[in-house]
Amino acid sequence: MTDSALRTADVVVDPRLPRAPEALLTEALTCLGLTPRVRELPRRRSPDQLAWMVMVTVPLHGFLKALADKSATDAYERLQKAVRGLRKRTEEQPRPLVLQDPESSLRIVLDPDLPPEAYRQLLSLDLTGYRLGPLRYDTTHSRWRSELDEVEPH
To answer: Which domain of life is it from (predicted)?
Structure first.
C-alpha cells in the first residue's frame, strides 16, 4: 500500500446525513492527518435502511495508532464528537460510524453512545486477535468483541 493510501480515508455517507455531522467527521479525520474523500451512496429506493450512517475505509492499524498518538489532543475529541453527532434523529434509529480496513475488510462499529472507556480501549486494541468481525463494544462486559470470532473455530 502506498504512503498516500495510508493517509487517505474513503468516507461513504448515507445521503440523508445532514451536512453538520459530515463536516465534523471530515474535520476530525483531517486533524488525525488523513485526507478524507467523501461520497454519498445513491439514494435507496427500498424501505430498507442501511445498518450504518457513515463508513470510513482506512488502514485500521495506522488509524488507531494516529488516534492513540493524538489521544490528548483536540483531534481525539473531535472524532468522539463526530460519532456522537450521528445520534438518534427523531425519524430513525441511531446508526453507527463503521471503520473498515481496506485489506482485511475487518470492521469496527462506533455506536453514537459509546462511553469514554470504549474509546480508551480502542486505542490499544490488538486487531490481530480478530479475523471475522465486526468488532462492537459490549457495554455489559466493558470490552470490544466480535461475536463471530468467538463462535468460529480457529
So the answer is: Bacteria
